[in-house]
Amino acid sequence: MRLEGKVCIITGAASGIGKAASLLFAKEGAVVCACDVSKEALENLVQEASGLAGKVDPYVLDVTNREQVSKVVEEIVNKYGKIDVLVNNAGITRDALLLKMTEEEWDAVINVNLKGVFNMTQAVAPHMIKAGKGSIINTSSVVGIYGNIGQTNYAATKAGVIGMTKTWAKELARKGAQIRVNAVAPGFIKTPMTEKVPEKIIEAVLARTPLARMGTPEEVAYVYLFLASDESSYVTGQVIGVDGGLVI
Ligand code: NAD
């Protein structure tokens, strides 16, 4: 098993890519501390994970709430003694054209997708520094690389995630610490986040995608798995596209 004995925190763990990753990591022997705002969806995830080699331990957590974040991270460290992997996967969209975007829409996306990643990493990093090792995986997007009409807020956060990834890859590796920080940039993936995208837009994106189809959550989860495992022990500061070739 590729993650046997590893303690992994995954945010946004109860749906889409986070859910696929939680199940895959548990199958590979990890203790998955599954964090999400949705209690009900977490309960379903735990049921689905029963019988897998590892386990899914659910935590109702809003990544924008710094008090909750530090409480949950302390609870996990007290329970398991360490954190090997952090996957900053939670993310939302609130789309609108620049001239129509409200301050609320801007703030909501910045808070979850950018500040949430900062909150989680700031709480987890001291434990990885103490252990001298760890792997942090941040979920960016192709939108953070090439922009997208109607996604000013989302593009800002996903580009910001790439900046934080490269900064932390340098900062957290000081004094010989084997702490790796990488980003994954998915393209168009079939999850609840994309289920309301109009058919016309899907067709236009697929026409520009060499593999000419949407990706599955599992196809992203497998890249998280590689970055979480010791197989990627010399990979840090990278942005790995999982986009069917959309950004070439
Ligand atoms: P999803 O909507 O299926 O799942 C997101 C999960 O995050 C949900 O379970 C939700 O409850 C949780 N969440 C939302 N706000 C939260 C908060 N404040 N604290 C904790 N959890 C919270 O979305 P998905 O498609 O699986 O997206 C996962 C990640 O992948 C996101 O960061 C998203 O931006 C990114 N991404 C997705 C796509 C795509 O095409 N689906 C493409 C590029 C990037």
Describe the overall structure:
- GO terms for molecular function: 3-oxoacyl-[acyl-carrier-protein] reductase (NADPH) activity; NAD binding; quinone binding.
- It is an enzyme of class 1 (oxidoreductase).
- Its EC number is 1.1.1.100.
- The chain is of the alpha/beta class.
- Helices cover about 45% and strands about 15% of the residues.
- The chain is built from 8 helices and 7 strands.
- The chain has helices at about 15-25, 40-50, 65-80, 105-130, 145, 150-170, 200-205, 215-230, and strands at about 5-10, 30-35, 55-60, 85-90, 135-140, 180-185, 240.
- Helix 4 (about 105-130) links the parallel strand 4 and strand 5 (about 135-140).
- The radius of gyration is 17 Å and the shape is globular.
- The two termini are about 35 Å apart.
- The structure holds nicotinamide-adenine-dinucleotide.
- Nicotinamide-adenine-dinucleotide binds near residues 62 and 64.
Keywords summarizing the entry:
248 residues; alpha/beta; seven-stranded parallel beta sheet; oxidoreductase; EC 1.1.1.100; NADP; KR_dom; quinone binding
Distance between the termini: 33 Å
Strand order of the largest sheet: 3-2-1-4-5-6-7
- How many domains in all? 1
Bound molecules: nicotinamide-adenine-dinucleotide
The biggest sheet, with number of strands, parallel, antiparallel or mixed sense and barrel status, is: 7 strands, parallel
Count of helical stretches: 8
Shape type: globular
What's a quick, concise take on this entry?
The protein has 248 residues and is an alpha/beta fold. Helices cover 45% and strands 17% of the residues. The protein has a single domain, classed as 3-Layer(aba) Sandwich (Rossmann fold).
